[in-house]
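Table S5 (text form). Sequence records supplied for joint modeling of the two-component complex.
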Amino acid sequence: MTSSSKEGERRRRYDKLVAVFYQDMYRYAAWLCRDKAIAEDVVQEALLRAWKSLDALRDDDAAKPWLLTIVRRENARYFEKRRLETVDIDNLSASQAALLAEAPNEELDDMRAAIFELDDDYREPLVLQVLMGYSTSEIAEMMGLKQGAVLTRLHRARHKLKDSMETQ
Amino acid sequence: MNCEEYREATAANPAFEGGASHAAVCSECRAYQREMLALNAKIAKAMQLDVPELKMPQLPAIETNNVTALPARSRWRNPLLFAVAATVVLAVSISLRTSEVFQSYDTLAEEVLAHMDHEPAALRVTDKPVSDKRLARAVPAKLAIFDRGESLITYAQPCKINGKDVPHLVIQGEHGPVTILLMPEEKVAEATPIDGKNITGIILPVGDGSIAIVGDREEQLETLQKSVVNSVTWTT
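The corresponding C-alpha cell record, covering 404 residues in total, follows.
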C-alpha cells in the first residue's frame, strides 16, 4: 500500500470514529468541566491527541472508552494547570451558565442544575453510567477505583439528586 | 437480601435485577425501584446537552511509512524482567513527552504563537479579573514586578518558553483578549512583528529581556505597548 493511500485510509478511519463518538466526547467533557468553552477546548485537544495516537487503537470496537479516556486525561491536564475555584451555582461565568441555559423546561433545568452542583466524585461515575452506558466494573476500571467505591458514589449521587429535586 | 441492601443496590443501578425474591415480597422496595427508575430517566434526559457543531482541529501530517505491522510477540521468560523493562520504557517516554525536547521553533515569534495555540482557554472573553494572589504566582518576584494598574487581567499563568520561566498574562482589550508574555531572559535585538491567523503582535526588547504582546488584528496594540512596558520591572 502506498504512503498516500495509507494516509487516506487512516484519515477515513479517524473521521468515522469522530463522527460516531463526537457527541459523547463533548457531553462527557461538558459534564466533567461544567463549562461550555472549556469543554470545547478539551474536546479539540482530545481530537488532536486521538489523531496522533490513532495507531495505538488496535480494535475500533474499543474506540469509545479509548476516546473518553483521552477526554478525561485532557480535562485533567487542563485543570492541572488551572485549579479552578468551586463552582457556585448562583455566580456562574457566562460559559458555565451557557450549559444550563439550554434546558427546554423548568424541571429539566432544575435537574441539570442539581447535576451541575454534584461533586466531581459523584458526577463523573453518574455520567459514565447514565449517559455513556458503562457498567460499574467498567467505570471502576476507567476511574481507577474499586467497584464498591463506584457503587457507593452512584448510590449517594442519586440520593443527593433526589433530595435536591424534592427541595426545589 | 434485606430492604437496605436492595435499596442501596437499586440506587447505585436502578436497572438492578438481583434480589428479585426480595422485591417479590416487598411492595415498598418495588415502589422504591420505580422511583429510582423515574429519577434515572430524568437524569438521563437532563444530561443530553446540546452539542455544538464539530470543529475539526488542524490535524498534523502523520508519517504513515513508519507504521508497520508488529512482529510476532516474543515471550518474556521472566515476567519480572518484562515489568522492569516496561517501567523503564514508560519512564523514558513520559520524560520525553514532558520535557518538550523534540519541540523546536525557528524563531521566538513562532514559539510565542505555538504557546498561545497550546493554551487556547486563556483567550476567553470575560470580565472576571484574576486575584492578586494568582497574579503573584504567575509573576514571581524573582522574575519581575508587574503593576496591574487599571488593566483587567483575566488570565495569569507561569509558563515556559525555550525552557525559561515566562509569566503568561491576558488582559481584555478593546477587541478581545490580548496576550502578554513577559520574557526576562529572552533578549531580542529589535522589535519583532508576530503574525498569526487573525492575530497580530510584537516582541519588544525590554532591557535584557523582551515582552510579547499579541491581540486581535483590530486591536490598537501601539497604545497598549507603552503602558505594558511601563508596568514591568525585571528583577532577574
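Note: Chain B has two domains: 3-47, 108-234.
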